Request: fold
Amino acid sequence: MIAFLSLVLLAGPASFPASAPVSERAVLEAAPASQPVFVRRVLREEPPEPSATVPFMRDVRIDVGYKNTIVPSQSFRALNPGNVQAQSAIGVSWAAFSWDRFALAPGVRWEASLAYGNLRGDRSRHATHRALLSLDARYRPLRWLDVYARAAGGVFINELAVSSAALPSMPLVGRQATGTLDGSLGVDFLLGPHKKLKTRAPRVWATLEAGYSWTAPMALVLAPSLANDDPRRAGTTTLGTLNIQGPFLRMGLILAL
Reply:
């Protein structure tokens, strides 16, 4: 035996043919069940690397924000202190269709603004409301970032009241409705929590959106606000055409459920 070992050591590894490395799992699986295995190590698989992205969940998102629209229209500036329409915005959407990193989310939105000004020396109150149906096409390049394109359309309601110092008890009021459209691009940033992203849970996102808002022109027709039993009668007054459209920027927060 000693002589055999001496020959092996003298010959070296070059005397034996090279063989492909065999994994420990393969050795254990090849061993017959009747043959005892005296030494068995526990094979622990390494945890997978965290993916850079997380598939979309069919979550419901409630967003609230502040929207500024630049309206370069003389008719708008006549009713407002400047050419910026400041609106409060709220929306609800649902990712009803999702394919890994992509999702389509229909939703509803509501926006409103209120401004006080002076119209030809008389005090004016100008309020607007927008009720919209929207559709978001979302893409998730990173675990904490969503980008989206949004198309929306609906009804725009304009309300104007003008109070004259000469007739404070008889203000002129008008209410008109027309169609409106929005097109925009935006990004959502996940604020937290950042754990268990593959589980549906309440999360907070920040959103930034830029686009263009279009509203069909409408005639500003005002009439005195009189009670039904008031014997006085008066005609209507047309102040011209109101045109509200322009680029906008919206910022806000999202609660995803």
Q: What stands out?
A: The chain has one domain: 60-226+235-256. Residues 11 and 40 are 32 Å apart (CA to CA). The longest strand covers residues 122-142. Residues 37-44 have pLDDT under 50 and may be disordered.
